[in-house]
Design brief:
The chain is built from 19 helices and nine strands. It is α/β, with parallel strands linked by helices and 450 residues long. GO terms for molecular function: DNA binding; transposase activity.
Length: 450
């Protein structure tokens, strides 16, 4: 969008970003490009034309790179440079170590995306030739061209939220894997058990009853059958009470007790498979308890940041859902615009326009996949509880021109959640349905007309 100055909003944002990077990579500083590894660190000192001023290999761990930074600063000073800017790829945990060492020495620190280094490597001599020495020079060259970024600043509270978010994602993956294994095993040896509830693996009664069956009979379903329906129900009630529940679903219990006589399945594998199911149910229950504890810890961190009220002002977005998103984004204030946050998640549309040609618009798919997943999970609750999102979904899927599929419309809502979460946190103002529906510009026009 242009204005009287001939500079668009995108131009202004890009100019501001380049100004921030130029402050960290001033023309008076030499550039220290470091290719990080486990026990071998390649360090080069270059000027802004990527001419190598000094080069040295350090056989040390990342925590011992302080001597390398001191050596690079001495070489740059000897060549007449005022200081150095340190640059590296975000490799594992080592780049955080290097960032702290640089901060201890008051050296500006930036990172270069490995994808950019890969592209630059190919364009260097049209080959896929790769060495640590060449990569260090490429990192310095990309930094001189300001094709780098400012890493997230270190903060104890936000850092804890990030680690809890990683823990939560790990537990979810474990639980999904356990559910898939349980389903696969039962489909093989006792498929009738899966037909006893509409969504058996989401039913507390079904899980408790299967635990009782698998732990009692060791694959001999006739043993549990001999208990009788009443004693079976009592055993399941005790199991549900032990898990913190109140009462079972009698309908599911009746169906599961009846299924004990079903001979369908590979009965030769039934004893061993049900023993594995018992182990998986136990691991699943343990993982669920750990997930609950992790969710509680994440919401407490959100309270410490004083963001719970703001984040949950968006109807349909729970404190846990907001914490999961913020665990992937870090402090939203580090993103200059809400669109930058959406691009970070890979949910921004990728345009294809050239002259009169208009190509098909798709998502970029770049950025942080875990953030994209966290936003996608938040859609389901928000779409049901938020009237603005529900109306938006209805419009996108029913309009006559450029009608979207259900998945495409939900992706639009996921991007909207990220934009509006950025807005409420950076402005400190609660979510407003009018602004979310029409935008602040429309609201100003209505106020002026009134």
């Amino acid at each position: 969008m242009g204005n009287g100055s001939g500079v668009s909003r995108g131009d202004r944002n890009r100019n501001a970003r380049l100004a921030r990077l130029r402050a960290l990579v001033p023309v008076t500083n030499a550039i220290v490009g470091i290719d990080l590894a486990d026990a071998k660190q390649m360090v080069v000192v270059t000027d802004h034309d990527s001419k190598v001023l000094a080069r040295k290999t350090f056989r040390c761990r990342a925590w011992n790179l302080g001597a390398a930074l001191d050596w690079a600063a001495e070489r740059a000073t000897a060549k007449g440079w005022a200081g150095v800017t340190v640059a590296c790829e975000p490799t594992g945990h080592r780049w955080r170590v290097l960032g702290q060492l640089a901060a201890d020495r008051a050296m500006p620190f930036v990172c270069v995306q490995p994808m950019l280094t890969s592209w630059a490597r190919r364009s260097e001599d049209l080959t896929s030739d790769k060495t640590d020495e060449k990569d260090a020079v490429l990192i310095a060259r990309l930094t001189a061209q300001l094709r780098c970024y400012v890493p997230e600043p270190v903060d104890e509270t936000w850092g804890r939220l990030r680690h809890l978010g990683a823990r939560r994602e790990q537990l979810i993956i474990e639980m999904v894997s356990q559910v898939q294994q349980i389903r696969a095993l039962l489909e093989c040896v006792w498929p009738a058990a899966l037909d006893t509830a509409k969504q058996p693996l989401r039913s507390r009664t079904w899980a408790a009853a299967m635990t009782v069956i698998c732990q009692r009979d060791g694959g001999d379903l006739a043993r549990t059958r001999r208990l009788g329906a009443a004693r079976f129900e009592q055993a399941v009630r005790r199991e549900i009470t032990r898990r913190g529940g109140c009462k079972p679903s009698l309908r599911i219990l009746r169906h599961l007790f009846t299924a004990l006589t079903d001979p369908t399945g590979v009965t030769a594998h039934r004893p061993g498979a049900l023993e594995r199911v018992a182990f998986l149910l136990q691991d699943w229950h343990t993982a669920a308890d750990k997930l609950t504890d992790t969710d509680t810890r994440m919401t407490r961190v959100l309270d410490e940041l004083k963001l719970t009220e703001l984040a949950t002002s968006i109807p349909g977005l729970s404190a846990v859902g907001a914490a999961a998103i913020l665990a992937e984004t870090g402090d939203p204030n580090r993103f200059a615009t809400a669109r930058a946050l959406v691009k970070h998640a890979g949910l921004a549309p990728r345009e294809k326009l050239s002259g009169t040609f208009v190509g098909r618009t798709k998502l970029t798919g770049q950025g942080r996949p875990a953030l994209r997943l966290a936003a996608w999970r938040a859609v389901w609750g928000a779409q049901r509880s938020n009237a603005v999102y529900a109306a938006r979904y209805q419009h996108l899927t029913t309009r006559e021109t450029n009608k979207l599929t259900a998945t495409q419309a939900q992706t639009v809502i996921a991007a909207a959640i990220l934009r509006q979460l950025h807005a409420v946190i950076t402005t400190g103002r609660a979510w407003n349905a009018d602004i979310a529906t029409y935008g602040s510009h429309h609201r100003r026009q209505v106020a002026l007309a009134a």
